[in-house]
Amino acid sequence: MIVKQSAEIPFRSSAGVLLAHVVITPVRDAMSLATAPLIEIDSADAQEHGETEIQLKESEGYEYEVKASAREDFRVRCSLAQRRRTVKSGEPDAGRLDTSCWCGTLLLELVEGTAVHGPPIATALLENSTIAPSIEACCDGSHRNSLTS
Known about the structure:
1 helix; 12 strands; globular
């Protein structure tokens, strides 16, 4: 496991073309590997356990920002995301992800402009795991699950 200060999540079209990256940065600094809010696990381990390499932790906050060409207006759509109110027209989308007590596979969708109800142009998955890696239940006692938009 590697503690990450931030992570760039690639978003590719269905044809495999890179459209944008979403940079995710934890609000809180990592105090130790066990409590790090953002980690990267080995690709073989991720594949073996059906998880993503980049992993968030429950009960944490993260800032996100879309990195795309200046002419593109892409936005993140996710049930745990809150767009920053101070983002002005023409600026890249940015906001906050709050994981609260939720854990499982998190779906991030990239949409064009204000098309919040339209189909996504690209998607990415992130694993949102429990605070202690050996615990399989979330802080509310429920089991891991998948969350889509």
